[in-house]
Design a protein that fits this description.
5% helix
């Protein structure tokens, strides 16, 4: 049961770490990133927020993220994890010597598609509203049988969710500093509890090539779902809570191409891995 919780939550955390901003893309402009995230965890935040040991699980997510300016105020958005590999280590019992085989799954992941609309064009504080739809394109069950017990690995939670997010951003130009905050509500289906989300970002641009940022993500469950929660068996990432933070460093080559590296650490959590999420990527700006 704990193993199932852990795997789904790894994927969930990897997908939501796309910080928003109040600035929509200009018409015909865009931002496109090919990214690779990975998590290797042998600890887990349980329902009481305590860290417990688990069988080591790893998740490797290769994804595409894009924003494109349909108009100066309307931006199309897409997050698509097109290759997700998750593995569960084998376990050898010290006393008996019995070995529990590991397991793995390779699949497509749940995908987010949405639009962002600029509410305050030309103002000092840029405010935008974003609507995201979470499409359940990942696998919710991939079973094998080991010693008569089913083992289930997933690359998605099987539910269609809708999230409304309000973001606000401000540039402190001529100082090379900017800041963004966001607040959102995520409506989840199939017995999952809804969620309130908050984000924050402070960025520093010491030159035209470098961007340094610190990001914060908060997720709070509304506890309005089924007691078990979601996707039939009732164990897939219901009532998840966390406070996560981490740095992101970008380097831009020739104005429109760059590399980015990031890390996110959960300082507290519930039903969440107690392990960092690392990411690297390459991006193109139109």
């Amino acid at each position: 049961m704990k193993k199932i919780f852990t795997l789904v939550l790894i994927l969930f955390l990897a997908q939501i770490l796309q910080a928003g901003s109040g600035w929509p893309q200009q018409k015909g402009k865009g931002y496109f990133k090919l990214g690779q995230n990975f998590i290797i965890a042998d600890n887990f935040y349980n329902l009481q927020g305590e860290v417990i040991g688990i069988t080591t699980i790893s998740l490797y997510t290769t994804s595409f993220y894009g924003e494109y300016g349909i108009t100066d105020r309307l931006t199309g958005m897409l997050y698509m994890p097109f290759f997700v590999r998750s593995t569960l280590n084998e376990v050898e019992r010290r006393q008996s010597g019995n070995i529990e085989p590991g397991d793995a799954i390779n699949s497509f992941g749940d995908t987010d598609i949405g639009i962002k609309y600029g509410l305050t064009p030309g103002k000092k504080i840029a405010v935008s509203a974003t609507v995201l739809f979470g499409l359940p394109l990942g696998k919710t069950a991939e079973g094998t049988t080991d010693a008569g017990e089913p083992r289930i690995l997933q690359t998605g939670d099987g539910e269609f969710n809708q999230m409304l997010m309000i973001d606000a951003s401000h540039s402190f130009y001529p100082a090379p500093v900017y800041a963004s905050i966001g607040l959102g509500y995520n409506n989840r289906t199939k017995g999952f509890s809804d969620e309130v989300r908050a984000t924050g970002e402070i960025g520093y641009q010491p030159s035209s090539h470098w961007n340094l940022a610190m990001k914060v993500f908060i997720n709070k469950s509304t506890n309005n779902g089924d007691s078990g929660g979601g996707a039939g068996s009732g164990v897939f990432g219901n009532n998840v809570e966390y406070v996560s933070f981490g740095p992101e460093v970008s380097y831009i080559f020739k104005e429109n191409f760059g590399l980015v590296a990031s890390a996110a650490f959960a300082s507290s959590g519930q039903n969440l891995l107690a392990a960092p999420n690392f990411g690297v990527g390459a991006f193109l700006k139109l």
